[in-house]
């Protein structure tokens, strides 16, 4: 039995769209109502989660869609997963919701076991966790950890006290207490929308306009020729990797302020599903070690199985392991993994806040992780992804201009391709919805597939049929 | 019947400390275990929330404390509140937890009713809400809204398009797309620990050291003479208000970069329970209107009833209402209130993220708000606070040096006072725990009281007895 059959014996067997347009009339009405108190301009439709099951999402007009977007890549086990529903009636969950602890000061007796549970799905080489609340928050907290670690090292170790000058200047937001350290990220990156994470983000102006930013640099992320496996492309892509690595090292050496950390997504998701090679990710490890810079991998969107390994960057087998790995989305929780005990700041209350995360969401993460391990969902996703990629190669052969730069081979269901224009991409996504498939885009003209880990071969067949139909309609 | 009797018929009648030291041996062991995966250095004890009830928190050594700290001021209705427990078994809660929506793109049919419910406890004059995840996040989101609003106004209105120069420069983190706008906050302020909120925070160096900050100014928060109601002090305090208002206006006029927003707590909580007068808060409204600056009130710690009004700043009856009010903590959720439709950015996806808040936590907020209204808990807190303040005045008379600057009269249970030194304050808090009362400090030498809204007269009597005993022991 596949995981979908195990979990969802009553999952629909096929999508069903009953309204002439999407959003349908009832969604339209509710979006308008919601708009009186909330910003509802981005709503595609209003969902009825009571009726949604497994890989199918149902809207308030009773349209039933096969969901390959899964709440912007954040549903790991499908809708109404029975194991997650069971979790809700536990005492642990009741305590985390009704008696939400300030986990730094008054941790619950359940906290250590909960964290030990989530650590079972930590990336290889990572042994500790610090918890936050969202992807942006995870990246901001990791950036804080990186700055404190970097400053401590520069100061001469964790026992060297702060100077009076540092203690005084920081209260005026000035150096040396508030140093002009920088984080190096990449063009087309997306790391969140707060002020440090936002300064690292570089995918679209609309995410950043009118917001003050730190004066931090964006290096170039390698842009590969596809398919990756022809000899000619392999050679060109190696040259591209070396070019981009040289830019990173040059920025570290020459940037106006010290670069404390390098922050990178192993696949730039929001920015267009741009992949980085194992060679490139290892090259960054070598450069960051050489220059004593903290290496942070952002696995907010790529993490927890969708790429066919538990954590995307594991395919690169980076040695020694990176310093910090951030997570959120499919984990339904957020935070960062680390392994060096010195990454914990030298004094208490430096990395701290009222709740220090959300134990309720960590409990959910723990159960998701357990289900992934118990049901072999990473292997399943690798297998289903390969099956889907083969079918997409056939479509690419037939419609090369509508399936350009097909990418994500051997990366599970984390697959994307380009349309000729933004207009055509939007048209394809709209047509796919009308044909019963909820699919997302990224960057200007890419389609990204982000189903849950319970997506299996029969869902692929349904999707490929809808996609084949849709491309003839646009 | 008081709310504690209604909710908690089986609440303990008295605290009970059974270990010679706190943390007790079992807490010690668990804190050490937790420390292998988490930063547990700030833990006072490990709590057993299954055994905690109403106003009493129980630790894993079976010590029973009357809780006047309530998870750093974040528990509104006591532990194991039956109405919140009932909420857990609803379909709405199941959907919000198991099928966590990306509420911007695929809002649940439950979202509009949930927000309409929380809007019933919005501050007077505020009609809309945007949701976040924590106090820091709420302030960062409000600061983003303020910057976008300010820029839009400066640009000439919401229909004026971004320039090519803005669109290009912002991708390099440079102006004019990433403008050098500033937020003015106050010395001793606490607004959170991320990078924009952290630049506004100015209470202790340890919160800020080694982190880059925006070059934003901190004005002076008025420091009053207590008691407030003597003629001499009233006159001196008015002079102090005028002095501080003049500094704010001067900074707005002369700061090196445009000040887009003023951010203030009506009572600086972390910074020492420093109160601002109605005159001062209205004065800021006048100045911000005059100079076209956004006025943001941070009610993360002061909000939702503890000060004897639903929102602390309402006592000042600021006219016209402030532009943004942030909330978190007792709301068990987070976000900001606003009323000007132009505070919604002119384009979608400018104020956006994957989850756009957490509907599960908003449902809890809605129920908390409903219970507060249905049970008259704001009035109760005002009454109980007055009762407690009277008792503290008696203690102050007897031990003037141990109860200096007693403050919070007519501010519900939001009461604080100063000890002569940090050392004595720490000793008092420790002794209070050994005498069965869990109480928090703020700033260097203040004690702050932050019980839940279900705290009533009988709890006051128990606390005052323990406090009286403790002051003779330190």
From TrEMBL, chains A, B:
Biological-process GO terms, alphabetical: gamma-aminobutyric acid catabolic process
One Pfam family linked to the record: Aminotran_3
Cofactor requirements of the protein: pyridoxal 5'-phosphate
Annotated InterPro entries: 4NH2But_aminotransferase_euk (IPR004631), Aminotrans_3 (IPR005814), Aminotrans_3_PPA_site (IPR049704), PyrdxlP-dep_Trfase (IPR015424), PyrdxlP-dep_Trfase_major (IPR015421), PyrdxlP-dep_Trfase_small (IPR015422)
Highest taxon above the source species: Eukaryota
GO cellular component: mitochondrion
DNA damage keyword on record: no
PROSITE patterns: AA_TRANSFER_CLASS_3
Reaction catalysed by this enzyme: 4-aminobutanoate + 2-oxoglutarate = succinate semialdehyde + L-glutamate
Top-level EC class: transferase
Molecular function (Gene Ontology), one example: pyridoxal phosphate binding
Keywords noted in UniProt: Aminotransferase, Pyridoxal phosphate, Transferase
EC number(s) recorded for this UniProt protein: 2.6.1.19
Similarity annotation: Belongs to the class-III pyridoxal-phosphate-dependent aminotransferase family.
PANTHER family for the chain: 4-AMINOBUTYRATE AMINOTRANSFERASE, MITOCHONDRIAL, AMINOTRANSFERASE
Name of the featured protein: 4-aminobutyrate aminotransferase
Protein source organism: Maudiozyma exigua
């Amino acid at each position: 039995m596949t995981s979908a059959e195990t979990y969802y014996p009553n999952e629909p067997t096929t999508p069903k769209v009953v309204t002439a347009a999407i959003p349908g009339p009832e969604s339209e009405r509710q979006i308008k109502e919601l708009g009186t108190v909330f910003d509802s301009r981005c709503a595609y439709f209003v969902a009825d989660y009571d009726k949604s099951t497994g890989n199918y999402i149902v809207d308030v007009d009773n349209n039933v869609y096969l969901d390959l977007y899964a709440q912007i890549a954040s549903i790991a086990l499908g809708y109404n997963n029975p194991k997650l529903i069971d979790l809700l009636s536990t005492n642990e969950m009741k305590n985390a919701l009704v008696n939400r602890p300030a986990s730094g000061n008054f941790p619950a007796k359940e906290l250590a076991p909960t964290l030990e549970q989530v650590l079972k799905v930590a990336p290889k080489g990572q042994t500790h966790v610090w918890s936050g609340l969202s992807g942006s928050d995870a990246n901001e907290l990791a950036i804080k950890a990186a700055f404190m670690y970097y400053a401590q090292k520069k100061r001469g170790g964790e026992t060297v006290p702060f100077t009076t000058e540092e203690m005084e200047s920081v209260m005026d937001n000035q150096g040396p207490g508030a140093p002009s350290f920088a984080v190096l990220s990449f063009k087309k990156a997306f790391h969140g929308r707060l002020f440090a994470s936002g300064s690292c983000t570089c995918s679209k102006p609309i995410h950043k306009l009118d917001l003050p930013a730190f004066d931090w640099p964006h290096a170039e992320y390698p842009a590969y020729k596809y398919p990756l496996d022809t000899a000619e492309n392999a050679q060109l892509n190696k040259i591209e990797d070396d070019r981009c690595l040289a830019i990173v090292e040059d920025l570290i050496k020459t940037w106006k302020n010290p670069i404390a950390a390098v922050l990178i997504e192993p696949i730039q998701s929001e920015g267009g599903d741009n992949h980085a090679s194992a060679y490139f990710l290892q090259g960054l490890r070598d450069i960051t070690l050489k220059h004593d810079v903290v290496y942070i991998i952002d696995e907010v969107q790529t993490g927890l199985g969708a790429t066919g390994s538990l954590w995307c960057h594991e395919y690169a087998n980076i040695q020694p392991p990176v310093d910090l790995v951030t997570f959120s989305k499919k984990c339904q929780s957020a935070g960062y993994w680390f392994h060096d005990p010195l990454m914990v700041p030298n004094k208490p209350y430096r990395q701290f806040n009222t709740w220090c995360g959300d134990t309720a969401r960590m409990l959910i993460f723990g159960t998701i992780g357990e289900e992934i391990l118990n049901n072999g969902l990473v292997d399943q996703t690798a297998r289903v992804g390969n099956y889907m990629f083969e079918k997409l190669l056939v479509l690419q052969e037939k419609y090369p201009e509508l399936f350009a730069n097909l990418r994500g081979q051997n990366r599970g269901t984390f697959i994307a391709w380009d349309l000729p224009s933004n207009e055509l991409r939007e048209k394809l996504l709209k047509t796919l919805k009308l044909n019963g498939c909820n699919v997302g885009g990224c960057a200007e003209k890419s389609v990204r597939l982000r189903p849950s880990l319970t997506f299996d071969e029969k869902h692929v067949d349904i999707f490929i049929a809808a996609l084949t139909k849709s491309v003839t309609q646009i």
